Amino acid sequence: xxxxxxxxxxxxxxxxxxxxQRASVRAVTAAIGGGSPNAVLKLLAxxxxxxxxxxxxxxxxxxxxxxxIKVQMQRVAEQAAATAEERAAAAADDxxxxxxxxxxxxxxxTVLTTERDAAQTKAASIDEQLKAAQADxxxxxxxxxxxxxxxxxxxxxxxQRQETTAAALARAEVRLEAVPGLQAEIERLRIALETxxxxxxxxxxxxAVLTAKLEAADRRATEADARTTKAEARTDAVAxxxxxxxxxxxxxxxxxxxxxxxxxxxxxxxxxAQAAAKKSSEEAAELRGAKPKAAKAQV
Length: 299
What we know:
Elements: H1 6-18, H2 25-32, H3 37-49, H4 63-178, H5 183-289
Helix pairs in contact: 1-2, 1-3, 2-3, 3-5, 4-5
């Protein structure tokens, strides 16, 4: 964007005047290659205020000079009226340009506000999903831990019973070797051993089933942790998006406030220009209706 200065605005306005064009905010902005319409309007008003205004003072001259002055006054009055009308038209054009800039800024703020509201709604929804996922993961972890503890306890109890049965069998074999007459006791112990072996096989099968259940519970706990981690990552991403949206909205609001201040300055400048145009029109009307005073003889 071009840098707007008084020199650049004055140069562009003078060039437009020399080319027979009206020095409006749009034309000057296009001539200098861009810039804020409010800044251009303020500097353009300063340039117009610094231009010389043609005034006609009361004179006491020879009637021939007075007649010539009358003709010149009529020309000047027509020129002043045309200039006043041009300034009024330029002021209206400038006000239209500022109004369009204000409307664009308000539209941008509306879009940014809508985006911010959508981001906040999305963040609230994801936050609820995260809380639900965390609760599910916590319950699954508690269930998995309880199942694993129970399975380990059952497996330990079964192993202790197997060890007790094996020790009794060993003692019986020793007694058998020492006392051959204890066949009935040995037979009883063998039957007990076979029964215990069957029970041990069943216990091993149950232990295998319990181990599989424990592994499944561990996998569910791991999956719950993964879902929790993924939900937290999604929450962080949405939080960053929400921060970015808030930053954009704040920047848009700042631009809107700046545009409002510039619009207020522009309105003041336009009011000043309209007052100047009104004054110029009054002067032009006064010049058109003025009659030269009778020339007085000079001593």
